[in-house]
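Priority: medium. Attachment 1 of 2:
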């Protein structure tokens, strides 16, 4: 297995040498990818207008080249995870793992991701979420605080909404003429 993994990593490194031409929207818009606002705007449009493809097709590393997690040691899974994440970053995908989540535990997530379809981006980044923000079903138990934070925010929002409602609520039908005559 050691030689196979070495060859796979060589293939991954070769795939990172490939650069796809920018989507035509970049040329048409004359946007500057070094301008953060333009980058974000055009990347969003590219994601909206682009055609989704399998991660395997975007990266050039086919799913069947990736060994099943159960056939690998922890060290091998960690090594492949690091290399696959670098490959994803090269193609502007950012897998969203908790910072301290061990690399050997990331491999099954990345393996499952490889057949998913995503829109490739020329510039910017496309974040890939693995969590549904459901604290009871968090895929990263013991490593993630996001689910707890999201639930705390939702409880806070619900409490604020309840307080507003008790005070008579918010007028969701404002007088448009009154708003148009405000002295701004």
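Attachment 2 of 2:
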């Amino acid at each position: 297995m050691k030689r196979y993994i070495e060859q796979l990593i060589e293939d991954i490194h070769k795939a990172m040498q490939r650069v796809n031409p920018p989507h035509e929207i970049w040329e048409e818009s004359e946007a500057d990818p070094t301008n953060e606002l333009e980058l974000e705007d055009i990347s969003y449009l590219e994601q909206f207008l682009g055609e989704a493809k399998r991660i395997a097709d975007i990266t050039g590393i086919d799913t069947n080249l990736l060994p099943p997690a159960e056939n690998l040691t922890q060290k091998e899974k960690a090594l492949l995870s690091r290399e696959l994440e670098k490959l994803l970053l090269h193609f502007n995908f950012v897998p969203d793992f908790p910072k301290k989540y061990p690399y050997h535990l990331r491999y099954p997530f990345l393996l499952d991701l490889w057949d998913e379809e995503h829109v490739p981006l020329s510039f910017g980044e496309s974040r890939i979420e693995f969590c549904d923000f459901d604290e009871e079903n968090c895929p990263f138990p013991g490593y993630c605080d996001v689910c707890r934070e999201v639930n705390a925010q939702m409880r806070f929002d619900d409490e604020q909404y309840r307080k507003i409602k008790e005070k008579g609520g918010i007028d969701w039908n404002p007088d448009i003429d009154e708003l148009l005559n405000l002295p701004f």
